Amino acid sequence: MREKVEKVIEVIRPAIQADNGDITLHDVDEATGVVTVELTGACVTCPASTQTLKAGIERILRDRVEGVTEVVDATAPSSDGTAVSL
């Protein structure tokens, strides 16, 4: 599955690079289908990066790679259900 994800990311990458960003694959969990990526460059400060991740990258990967269920951002804070106290 990882190899297929890598190939699809190589197809997506030029479109992201055209906007001065890039994408790095961090992990593919074959058991859960979760793909972890990091958007870099201009994507870091872009307000549309979450939309790019979910409506673009995730949709394409789910369509083209059997077993992919979700794409998550490696730099996003994890939500492990632990309460945060301020």
Automatic annotation (TrEMBL):
InterPro entries: FSCA_dom_sf, NIF_FeS_clus_asmbl_NifU_C. Residues 5-72 form the NIF system FeS cluster assembly NifU C-terminal domain. Pfam families: NifU (PF01106). GO terms for biological process: iron-sulfur cluster assembly. GO terms for molecular function: iron ion binding; iron-sulfur cluster binding. May be involved in the formation or repair of [Fe-S] clusters present in iron-sulfur proteins. Belongs to the NifU family. This is NifU family protein. It comes from Actinomarinicola tropica.
